[in-house]
């Protein structure tokens, strides 16, 4: 039985959910997936850090209170974060990177990824920053050291859109994609269809935990823009940076706009899309679009996300599912590890 | 560069489209997928057969007229089918099986699959019969001889639902699925929403080539039942035969039923589904169901197919796309070959 030693960077909802899954499912995974996971280190800006090369108790970790310096209360724990030490000295085979997204330079997450990959430690991440801004160099680095860099959770949480396009649509010739890639803004638009205006819909989303105190990144399309960059670079051979993607959010959509759309049996959706043009260049944008009722994305309501890939051979393929959620995103990390496990068996590395 | 020698059984729309793709795309595939395909034999009940171990001209094959015994007009061709000879003596590495579906015993397709697998020749098929009725024994046979048995095209043509569930949802714990798995019946139901009654909607589907002269298998749910058997056995650990699946079609749905549903913002859909029950047993059925507007399957119109997998960890994941079509189904065969290619690299076999 293969056992991977894993270090967790960031211990908010996602890696905490992963720890809980490890506590609950390791035995099942041994049988079903062919491996188990052993947590050997955790570092979190707020909770502190902890290392044990012989393995930490996943259940105990998952139950640590969300109070400042809480890791101090565990044996071998400290109130101080120690990302570098956890990456370099915990003997991990894998690093699960789930710190906050910095949309400007991807730091410090990108540096964490580099430290791990340089040592030949594979990285799985749910963090859009390193992927949107530095995927190419991180993938090259991984290749050089025999490590793997996987990032299914950077788009649509655990809903397997990246691997679907990469592996299952190989040969279908993807020419274009368009998606509802942000749950908050889609929830706001769905709420406005019940008669709320934009401000009230945002307030409702905040109340229900779908929107942050500052909802700008979600409703102005900045979050979607990073995802468009990730997908366009990965599947259309683009080399986009966020500033290459025109970006308009939903804050100008009025209750009247929504009512009018409903009357004409159409729906406003915040769409992130990219397309390969005849001359080989890529056109990419984020903008509110009025979708006719029979568009595969028109029926996607609430916090659900969805994406349609257009292909030459197979026509359009649409996938919808969770776009966020702690366990849903932790599953993305698990699915990345499943993928690495398969590749390791394959190459014997 | 890996070159696979492939034999085609059945040369209706699907394998003819595959031949056309080989003619058009081989060069691209060498670069993109890491292999090329060389057709070494074809057998068809109506057109006859042809073998050339050094490779047949794919473009010429794709252009053969659809007249009885047409292969006779090609060098080395014959007006007689010769399935066994093509399987056993064409030196093929792969057999693409796309003959007609026999829902009672899966023959003669199952025997064709056996002949190939016994010789260690991998089989890719779009044929529901052998998969629904004999998947377990064919998979065991393949394992014993080091061959592969792949059947993505048996459900939803090239839309990659089988591999999505098998590979990308590994670890997500699928508990249930429900799908719109037959394009003809869904087209009929969609047409009835424009005011046609059942008989007129069927006639329209026949006119447009969506329904066969005898539409029974499609509108009475028999086609969906085979697909439910395939999916339940593959993903829920069931051991179902078609008679285990209760089956009711759409022929009793009236124009009034449809109008009433529309009034209450719901839609009738022919749903194939299966569910793992608390006691571990499997409940599976095919029946018309009234879906509320916000069901992920409610918006799936016309000949499009879709399936929702319910999972413990990730919630529901829905995929929609082509459910039929020559090139769409030929892509399923290609995607099976991509998968086999990856496994061959992995095991070195």
TrEMBL record, chains A, B:
<dbReference type="InterPro" id="IPR019811">
    <property type="entry name" value="HDH_CS"/>
</dbReference>
<dbReference type="InterPro" id="IPR036291">
    <property type="entry name" value="NAD(P)-bd_dom_sf"/>
</dbReference>
<feature type="domain" description="Homoserine dehydrogenase catalytic">
    <location>
        <begin position="160"/>
        <end position="338"/>
    </location>
</feature>
<comment type="similarity">
    <text>Belongs to the homoserine dehydrogenase family.</text>
</comment>
<dbReference type="GO" id="GO:0004412">
    <property type="term" value="F:homoserine dehydrogenase activity"/>
</dbReference>
<dbReference type="GO" id="GO:0009088">
    <property type="term" value="P:threonine biosynthetic process"/>
</dbReference>
<keyword id="KW-0560">Oxidoreductase</keyword>
<dbReference type="InterPro" id="IPR022697">
    <property type="entry name" value="HDH_short"/>
</dbReference>
<dbReference type="InterPro" id="IPR001342">
    <property type="entry name" value="HDH_cat"/>
</dbReference>
<feature type="binding site">
    <location>
        <position position="128"/>
    </location>
    <ligand>
        <name>NADPH</name>
    </ligand>
</feature>
<feature type="binding site">
    <location>
        <position position="212"/>
    </location>
    <ligand>
        <name>L-homoserine</name>
    </ligand>
</feature>
<keyword id="KW-0521">NADP</keyword>
<protein>
    <recommendedName>
        <fullName>homoserine dehydrogenase</fullName>
        <ecNumber>1.1.1.3</ecNumber>
    </recommendedName>
</protein>
<dbReference type="Pfam" id="PF00742">
    <property type="entry name" value="Homoserine_dh"/>
</dbReference>
<feature type="active site" description="Proton donor">
    <location>
        <position position="227"/>
    </location>
</feature>
């Amino acid at each position: 039985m293969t056992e991977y030693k894993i270090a967790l960077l960031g211990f908010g909802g996602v890696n905490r959910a992963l720890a809980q899954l490890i506590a609950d499912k390791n035995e099942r995974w041994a049988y079903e997936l062919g491996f188990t996971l052993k947590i050997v280190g955790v570092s979190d800006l707020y909770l502190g850090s902890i290392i044990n090369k012989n393995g930490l108790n996943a259940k105990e970790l998952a139950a640590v209170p969300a109070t400042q310096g809480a890791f101090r209360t565990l044996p071998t724990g400290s109130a101080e974060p120690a990302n570098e030490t956890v990456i370099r000295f915990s003997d991990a085979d894998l690093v699960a990177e789930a710190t906050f997204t910095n949309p400007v330079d991807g730091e410090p997450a990108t540096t964490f990824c580099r430290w791990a990959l340089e040592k030949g430690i594979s990285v799985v991440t749910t963090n859009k920053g390193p992927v949107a801004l530095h995927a190419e160099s991180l993938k090259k680095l991984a290749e050089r050291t025999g490590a793997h860099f996987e990032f299914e959770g950077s788009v649509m949480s655990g809903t397997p859109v990246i691997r679907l396009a990469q592996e299952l649509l190989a040969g279908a010739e993807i020419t274009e994609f368009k998606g509802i890639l942000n749950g908050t803004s889609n929830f706001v638009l769905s709420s406005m269809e019940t008669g709320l205006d934009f401000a009230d819909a945002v307030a409702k989303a905040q109340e229900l935990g779908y929107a942050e105190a500052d909802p700008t990144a979600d409703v102005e399309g900045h979050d979607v823009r990073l995802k468009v960059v990730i997908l366009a670079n990965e599947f259309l051979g683009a080399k986009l940076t966020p500033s290459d993607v025109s970006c308009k959010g939903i804050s100008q959509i009025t209750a009247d706009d929504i009512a009018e759309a409903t009357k004409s049996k159409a729906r406003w959706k915040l769409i992130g899309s990219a397309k390969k043009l005849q001359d080989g260049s890529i056109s990419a944008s984020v903008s509110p679009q009025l979708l006719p009722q029979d568009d595969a994305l028109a029926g996607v309501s609430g916090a659900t996300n969805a994406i349609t890939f257009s292909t030459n051979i197979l026509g359009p393929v649409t996938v919808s599912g969770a776009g966020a959620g702690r366990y849903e995103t932790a599953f993305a990390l698990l699915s990345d590890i499943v993928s690495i496990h398969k590749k390791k068996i394959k190459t014997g590395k």
